[in-house]
Amino acid sequence: MGLLDQVRGPQDLKRMSLAELRRLAAEIRERIVQTTSKTGGHTAPNLGTVELTLALHYVFESPRDRLFWDVGHQCYAHKLVTGRQERFDTLRQPGGIAGFPKRSESEHDQFDAGHSGNSISAALGVATGDRLRGTERRTIAVVGDGSIVAGMAFEALNHTGELRQDLTVVLNDNEMSIGPSTGGMASYLNRIITGRMYNRMRADVWNLLGLMPSEMTEKARLAAKKLEEGLKNLVVPSILFEELGFRYFGPVDGHDLGELVQTFRRVRTQHGPVLVHVNTVKGRGFKPAMDNPELFHGIGPFDCVTGECSGKSKRTYSSAFGEALCEMAARDDRVVAITAGMSLGTGLAGFREKFPNRLYDVGICEQHAVTFAAGLALAGMRPVLAVYSTFLQRSVDQVIEDVCLQNLPVILAIDRAGLVGEDGPTHHGVFDLTYLAMIPGMTVLAPRDEDELKAMLEFCRTFEQGPVAVRYPRGGSDRQLGPGAPVEFGRAETVRPGKDGTVLAVGSMVAPAFEAAEALAREGLELAVVNARFVKPLDEELVLAAARRHGRLATVEENVLAGGFGSRVAELLDRHGVEARVRRFGISDRFVEQGSRAALLENEGLSPGRLANEFRVLFR
User: Fold this and answer.
1) For the chain, how big is the Rg over CA atoms in Å?
2) Domain residue extents for the chain
């Protein structure tokens, strides 16, 4: 029996020696690699935080002391030592352990996570509430160097310093967000790492002050303060965190359990805001992940020995987007690309190599990315912001105020729209059709396959009338429907004629609707299937004609039904006084849990078989 088999909760760690904890860390890494090689997951981030997790649970008293994990994609070791190791093989599977912290799963998971930059705010709120209620316990937020650049994190740091609240922020600095960290903060943290001499001298000064008598004169105190400031200015130009009101500890080797434990024991007795700067290596202990941490940040199943990805590679929407953007940039020097720390995930790796001076990676700062794109458009460029649907939610205000209100020709390339699978509810992109189509001046498209995505991007490049968004799903299309008609503003495309009824489908749902109609044709029911192409503006002429002809319509979308494509169709009919029955198919009014994309679509009634059953009832 290994050490991990003996761990049922954090209390079991406290009975171990440091040598045993080091052995346990090796077992945890092995378990993470073995499990994620089968289930996929965030392999590299979790391998980098094993010792950090063990040290936190060794010193603090979870769940009484509260741990907040920013983003949460580094919580696997935390889950393994908080009573979930026997179920760890169900990671990211339906009904299994979530890939992120989840309050309903364990009392040790203090806050549901999945997006970055919110941990310090949540932890500060809890710590302040505890103070108001007279509850004494420690609150710790663990945030990465990629996440701490988010505007919300800076807002929380600023507020913490003002409140002088007891709060420990652990900065996990691995010089990576998803890809390599960029920007001024990354450079600043690197300077701190090289300024270890300052931290050693600062500790010596504090030890010296501790030896002085309590009746030390005001003059001596002032001299000590000037000495400390002199050391700071000599060795490190500016200590941002201390200026914000934090007591700074570090940098600490995030893989040295002894140093981590000693630091956290010292921090545990501190009052006021404290920041512990920990240096870790993303992918630690698994060479393929260390060699390619960007790939192994979030990965599907792989060979746990070689690191090679399982399954056959195929063309995806992301790769088609990257190809199209490179082609556009080659013939139009106005085209520039923007990403929020996700060059690889959004298909921009090739663009990064071919046009390095026209790719802007702003880090995990989607709000800034949108307004930055607005500025580029003002300067006459054709900015293309490649972003996951779930993360674009963070910048809805900027899309409204900074892009649409000023009618600027910004192109939003929205990847991972719809159900994304095993990452679960924090990552499903099922709201974008609703929140984008509601904005005046916004044009919204969705392609049926990769070839149509490329055609739509070319349409966007030449569209000068205002902002435009193209949304597309994770992975690749399951069915190619052949060459399509040219993309024309506000025009849909009939991909299958039919005399018995009309199905209006959007983007990823065109192929399932087509397959359902083909199955019903074998029963003698002939349904027309329309590729809507444009969610806004609708092809009003086509929709109204179909409604008047049949009196019944079905709409199919991979978006929440509330305010989505189907709602826009129903509103159009109401505006024109057309009485027709509209049956809407889409994502139900709930947060969809984790599972394979195919299984989730089946559960939501969006598979070809489920749609055929519903169409049979509606159009008979």
Assistant:
1) 27
2) 4-178+252-297, 317-471, 493-619
